[in-house]
């Protein structure tokens, strides 16, 4: 392919060199004459392991050249990667001046181009940037509409400084953020045809969000390990041994478990153990702001769900699932119990079905808890899901103990289904029959 790369900083320089090394004809574009001259002389404008030798090789072979002439580069290529910087503003927001300026320049060059062209945003941008900044800038200067005169994709990079070449050739996946018609997918796939990894297509907004999600999680892991380390040190426990053993659990700890958005956590372990850990830290005069924020964050998430249900303005609420998760009758610190209590307190009519809790009322370990702690809630429980579903305006799915077939079978047109646990994979699975909302 013939590819232009706008911005010869860290990401652009690595991307341009690797694309040229894969056999593509690449033109690097930058406003800096110094960077352009260095590239054309076979020298790297950045310091990175292996990049100097690679640029020297691909320039010598004719695969990579550089210029400051935007129009010339764009007219000679079929796909453009935008890799300019998006630095922080003093308030934490991103400064899109460079990306907007690059898109203005690209748009002006597109005005005189008849052939199809794909603009790929590789810069790290917040959700909304492509539709609010990139596309308007391209359209305003080109006089063309995205999806007709040109196409825009999002292709976030996952390059770590110091190992960027290795990361380029061995990424976890290649992500393409595309419009509904998947315009630009063919060209982007061709650019990465020799990279052996999964090619994922998603919406533009999802693709913009992924890089931030990854980096936030990386930061979270570092802070988590450091706070555990501080607590370990205060009690004379080897923090590296603790985290070493922790990381051996790849079923729950280092895995995709607990990483699906849903309702608040509860149960007999997590709240109690977090309180104990934060109390211990206070006794040791330690600050563990991340661990200390978990219960308040969980509470805020609960309140958001409660407020949403109340905002629906309905009086009859059916709750399917009372225990804190499916497969158990444990009601201790269940957010579903708390939700029901709040709804009752607001004067709403609530009915509940949970097979496991119904059995516990008769002979389970939680029988005493139900009779003594929540007798008012116990009286609201029904003997079947039909009795709950058919007599309410809002169906709240609190856990996955009841299959989605039962909900679909008994729900009536006009009811609102508020799915707190993604029993249904997508909201669209509900909308065919009635109004569904996934939390």
Instruction: Name the poorly predicted regions.
Output: none
**Structural class category:** alpha/beta
What would you say the CATH architecture of the largest domain is? 3-Layer(aba) Sandwich
Q: How many β strands by DSSP? A: 13
Count of discrete alpha- or pi-helical segments spanning 4 or more residues: 19
Quick one: CATH superfamily of the largest domain? NAD(P)-binding Rossmann-like Domain
Overall mean pLDDT stands at 92
Rg from Cα: 28 Å
In one word, what is the shape?
Answer: elongated
Main β-sheet: number of strands, strand sense, barrel status?
A: 6 strands, parallel
Q: What's the domain count?
A: 3
CATH topology title of the largest domain: Rossmann fold
The CATH class assignment of the largest domain is Alpha Beta
Strand proportion: 5-15%
Biggest sheet strand line-up: 3-2-1-4-5-6
What is the oligomer described by this structure? single chain
The amount of helix comes to 40-55%
Could you characterize what this model shows?
The chain folds into three domains: about 1-205, Rossmann fold (3-Layer(aba) Sandwich); about 215-290, 3-Layer(aba) Sandwich (Rossmann fold); about 300-439, NAD(P)-binding Rossmann-like Domain (Rossmann fold). Helices cover about 45% and strands about 15% of the residues. The chain contains 19 helices and 13 strands. Strands 3-2-1-4-5-6 form a six-stranded parallel β-sheet, sandwiched between helices. The chain has a five-stranded parallel β-sheet with strand order 10-9-11-12-13. Strands 7-8 form a two-stranded parallel sheet. Strand 7, helix 8 (about 185-190) and strand 8 (about 200-205) form a beta-alpha-beta unit. Helix 1 (about 10-20) crosses helix 3 (about 50-60). The radius of gyration is 28 Å and the shape is elongated. The two termini are about 45 Å apart.
